[in-house]
Design a protein that fits this description.
Length: 156
């Protein structure tokens, strides 16, 4: 899934301003100007659209962990991955929102995507492990949709 899609999705889910997104990135030592952030948030077919690089996405997800859970100096900052896969995004979002396996299954089920505990745990295995399974775009989309429904319920 595109880094830009995840960035837009998290922004909507948490109702964050562009300035707040920049602050979250700044908490990891990355400086992004407001015009660049605006370009990351545009859709692919819009003028001035800019692809969000993996380094920026990895730092944003680490910053999101600090934003949601607080920074604890007793623990080292999470690793900044050179390549951000859907599995990495899923792992970091799980940590940021303090989700357990049952929570993940409930979130995916709420988005009409059922997954077994075994299938889910395969996404969190280390690449190269015999039970590792790559997380597809569809799974990540359903997860983001379900998480948005949980974090930002519709007012009715």
């Amino acid at each position: 899934m595109m880094n830009n899609d995840v960035l837009r999705s998290v922004r909507y889910m948490l109702d964050l301003s562009e300035g707040r997104l920049i602050e979250i990135l700044a908490s990891t030592g990355i400086t992004i100007s407001p015009p660049v952030m605006s370009r990351y948030l545009k859709k692919e077919d819009e003028a001035d659209y800019m692809v969000c690089p993996d380094e920026v996405m990895a730092n944003f997800l680490n910053g999101l962990i600090f934003f949601k859970r607080g920074r604890d100096d007793r623990f080292p900052a999470p690793e900044v991955e050179k390549r951000v896969t859907n599995n990495v995004m899923l792992k970091k979002l799980r940590v940021a929102f303090e989700l357990k396996t049952e929570d993940l299954q409930g979130i995916l089920a709420a988005a009409d995507f059922k997954v077994s505990e075994g299938e889910l745990s395969a996404f969190f295995r280390k690449e190269g492990h015999k039970n590792y399974r790559p997380c597809g775009d569809q799974v990540l989309r359903y997860f983001l949709k379900g998480l948005t429904m949980r974090v930002r319920p519709k007012k009715g």
